[in-house]
């Protein structure tokens, strides 16, 4: 068994997905969707779509997968209950610990863990299961081996089509810190789709250096199914209905077998960012990066010729008025074109750009295709039995409903009702999506006015609709909840200093969080530090194989600093102290309470300002206050895996068109090279209400040492870090 899961950014997309044959759809609730730019749904629109989907047995999953701040908890929980009561089959959450609270309070609400939670290994899956989730949407970086292992633990959902985030699982802070719009809060401005260049040997020219091709696993979806994946997810809540319909039909054809070339062609014409990639589940391929093209380029339909000063394309495709084209030269977009006229061998284009013979012509708007894709409407097969007899009520049954009229059929003296007339009447569904097959039982001549017959038919079909789309969820009444805040840190107690880095020479701290340059060799004795506690930094992504290696070297550490929530179970299993890192995104009291119950330390989310952090800052709370701000984890090679010519530097620099420079750290894990992208300006935001966390991962010495010695002095920090930022310390991202 498997499920094809389609996106729905609005009502039209939802209907297109159902009509195209999707098994389930996912959509965003207006207030808390990670795609705030989509139209999303209020309760009225949601109930309408749920009814239509449920008529055909299609499930509806509602994304409420933004980070939820403390001041939003009441609204969020009341909205979540209302969404469930409206008939949602499951709700997607990013916050695994908030999910635990919801599951304990409302056990009948089905929870799916969003890909933004970054579940990528067995400990992460087990934690999700413990917290009440029935399914995890796996990180798009998970390998086939990891997918198989996690699928043996919990039901899995995997992306198979659509856009790819550059950052691990979309847990990106680049838009937040470099642009003021938080992706984790649904406001991503896609800075990864802008132009940059790396300072490596092959760099120096601006390109879409962070942009990835769209995902399309194609036939390899069957390998995912063999690995145990249940739900095959199409990305695209910001896309048009034509794209949704084409993507569903393509995926359906893949699983049905046979040649899917036509369906793939249809899909490319609705939206295609360039060369499709199989993604990272099967290893990085040559098409993963898309440095030359950004945006929809459609499907290639021919090569341009210049004939008597006119632009001509020899092609089997015959455009129509309204069709649109893009022109590419050596892989780069050079202009667009509109249809002028056709002849037997091709067609003429008009363009304002200076085009050349040999330029590639790509179809981006196919009006005929759009009409065709949206012309098919699903119908619910309904067998109806109509029974008529004089001096008796008119009766009808079907679809689990039986109705008798309030009026009696009269004996007919002239023009009695015929079986054909009754069939014709009940074949009319008044716009309802029923495919009716009518059987009539007529006993003797009888009669009723058409107005009564029509009114009875409408009431009957309305009752069938209500029965077939009935909300079968357990209803809950929301009551205001109490969220216990942690006891604040005693003012007389000295604050602790925790330092993240790879080199602690001359640095004094209470807690040292060691980031190895190679996780296959990460023994604590290899780094020099003071007498403080020693923690090993666990990145947001670690395969189960890598965790086995880490376990072998964890003995000399006092604890683990977990950038991913999977670290909670690792710490418990290994008998080590937990430090829940900023990557766990603790933004509310529910999440803090769950982590605090594990013992150890916790860092509050980088997305909160100081006013939002203060109520959550208990005795063991830390706040990132100075140093580097990690904004991305990259699990692919940004240089296209040119290992033979790789410089293998520890640090690179990524530069944007505004001249801003972003440090890029390289490190090694069992799976090969990994990269961390840091903000263009380090953090300078001293605070006095919590323990202090500073990140020195990308700062050179002696700046790193200066930050560690002066972390509480803003003026000195600004001298050490003249190009620094206060981040979100004073104001919220939004």
Task: Give me the CATH fold name of the largest domain.
Answer: TIM Barrel
CATH H level, superfamily name of the largest domain: Copper homeostasis (CutC) domain
Radius of gyration: 30 Å
| Helix-strand makeup class | alpha/beta
Shape descriptor reads: globular
Low-pLDDT segments, ≥5 res: none
What's the multimeric state?
single chain
Helix content: 10-25%
Ends distance: 42 Å
Averaging pLDDT over every residue, what do you get?
Answer: 93
Numbering strands along the chain, what is their spatial order in the largest sheet?
1-2-3-4-5-6-7-10
- In total, the number of strands is 35
Going by CATH, the architecture of the largest domain would be Alpha-Beta Barrel
Compute the number of structural domains: 5
| Major sheet attributes | 8 strands, parallel, barrel
Name the CATH class of the largest domain: Alpha Beta
Give the number of helices: 19
Beta-strand content bin:
25-35%
What does the model show?
- It is built from 19 helices and 35 strands.
- The chain is of the alpha/beta class and 734 residues long.
- It folds into 5 domains: 3-164 and 213-270, Copper homeostasis (CutC) domain (TIM Barrel, Alpha-Beta Barrel); 168-211 and 630-678, no CATH class; 299-373, Beta Barrel (Elongation Factor Tu (Ef-tu), domain 3); 380-468, no CATH class; 497-628 and 683-720, TIM Barrel.
- It has an 8-stranded parallel barrel with strand order 1-2-3-4-5-6-7-10, surrounded by 7 helices. An 8-stranded parallel β-barrel has the order 23-24-25-26-27-28-29-35.
- It starts with a strand and ends in a 14-residue tail after the last helix.
């Amino acid at each position: 068994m498997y499920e094809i899961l389609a996106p729905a950014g609005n009502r039209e997309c939802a209907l297109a997905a159902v009509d195209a044959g999707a098994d389930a759809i996912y959509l965003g609730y207006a207030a808390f969707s990670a795609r705030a730019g989509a139209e999303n749904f209020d309760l009225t629109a949601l109930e309408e779509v749920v009814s239509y989907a449920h008529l055909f047995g299609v499930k509806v999953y509602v994304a409420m997968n933004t980070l939820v701040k403390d001041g939003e908890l009441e609204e969020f929980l009341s909205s979540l209950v209302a969404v469930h009561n409206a008939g949602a089959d499951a709700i997607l959450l990013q916050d695994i610990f908030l999910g635990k609270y919801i599951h304990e309070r409302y056990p009948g609400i089905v929870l799916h863990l969003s890909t933004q939670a970054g579940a990528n290994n067995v400990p992460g899956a087990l934690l999700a299961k413990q917290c009440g989730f029935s399914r995890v949407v796996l990180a798009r970086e998970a390998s086939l081996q990891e997918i198989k292992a996690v699928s043996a633990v919990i039901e899995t959902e995997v992306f198979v089509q659509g856009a790819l985030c550059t950052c691990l699982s979309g847990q990106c802070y680049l838009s937040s810190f470099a642009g003021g719009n938080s992706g984790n809060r649904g406001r991503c401005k896609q800075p990864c789709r802008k132009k940059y260049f790396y300072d490596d040997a092959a760099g120096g020219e601006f390109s879409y250096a962070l942009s990835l091709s769209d995902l399309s696993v194609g036939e390899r979806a069957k390998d995912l199914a063999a690995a145990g994946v249940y739900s095959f997810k199409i990305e695209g809540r910001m896309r048009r209905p034509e794209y949704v319909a084409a993507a569903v039909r393509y995926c359906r054809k893949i699983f049905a077998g046979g040649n899917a070339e036509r369906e793939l062609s249809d899909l490319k014409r609705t939206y295609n960012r360039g060369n499709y990639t199989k993604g990272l589940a099967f290893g990085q391929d040559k098409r993963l990066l898309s440095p030359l093209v950004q945006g929809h380029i459609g499907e290639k339909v021919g090569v341009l010729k210049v004939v008597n000063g006119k632009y001509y394309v020899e092609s089997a495709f015959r455009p129509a008025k309204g069709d649109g084209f893009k022109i590419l030269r050596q892989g780069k977009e050079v202009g667009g074109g509109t249809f002028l006229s056709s002849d037997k061998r091709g067609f003429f284009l008009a363009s304002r750009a200076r085009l050349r013979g040999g330029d590639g012509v790509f179809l981006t708007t196919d009006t005929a295709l759009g009409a065709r894709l949206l012309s098919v409407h699903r119908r619910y097969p309904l067998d109806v039995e109509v029974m008529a007899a004089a001096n008796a009520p008119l009766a009808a049954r079907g679809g689990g409903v039986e109705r008798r009229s309030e009026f009696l059929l009269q004996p007919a003296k002239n023009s009695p009702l015929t079986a054909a007339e009754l069939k014709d009447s009940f074949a009319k569904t008044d716009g309802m999506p029923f495919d009716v097959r009518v059987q009539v039982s007529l006993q003797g001549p009888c009669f009723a006015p058409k107005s009564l017959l029509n009114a009875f038919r409408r009431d009957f079909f309305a009752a069938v609709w209500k029965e077939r789309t009935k909300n079968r969820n357990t209803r809950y009444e929301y009551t205001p909840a109490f969220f216990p805040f942690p006891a604040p840190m005693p003012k007389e107690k000295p604050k602790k200093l925790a330092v993240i880095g790879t080199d602690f020479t001359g640095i004094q701290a209470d807690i040292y969080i060691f980031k190895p340059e190679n996780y296959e060799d990460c023994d604590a004795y290899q780094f020099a530090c003071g007498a403080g506690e020693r923690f090993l930094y666990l990145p947001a992504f670690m395969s189960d194989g890598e965790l086995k290696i880490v376990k072998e070297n964890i003995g000399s550490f006092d604890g683990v600093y977990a950038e991913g929530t999977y670290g909670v179970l690792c710490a418990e299993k290994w008998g080590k102290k937990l430090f829940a890192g900023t990557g766990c995104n603790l933004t509310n009291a529910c999440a803090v309470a769950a982590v605090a119950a594990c013992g150890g330390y916790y860092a509050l989310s980088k997305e909160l300002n100081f006013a939002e952090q203060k109520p959550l800052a208990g005795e063991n709370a830390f706040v990132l206050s100075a140093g580097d701000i990690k904004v991305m984890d990259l699990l692919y090679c940004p240089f296209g895996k040119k290992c033979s010519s790789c410089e293998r530097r520890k640090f690179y620099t990524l530069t944007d068109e505004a001249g801003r420079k972003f440090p890029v750290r390289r490190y090694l894990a069992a799976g090969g090279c990994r990269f961390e992208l840091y903000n263009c300006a380090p953090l300078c935001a001293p605070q006095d209400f919590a323990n202090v966390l500073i990140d020195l991962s990308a700062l050179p010495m002696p700046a790193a040492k200066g930050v560690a010695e002066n972390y509480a002095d803003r003026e000195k920090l600004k001298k050490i870090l003249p190009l620094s930022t206060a981040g979100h310390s004073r104001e919220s991202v939004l």
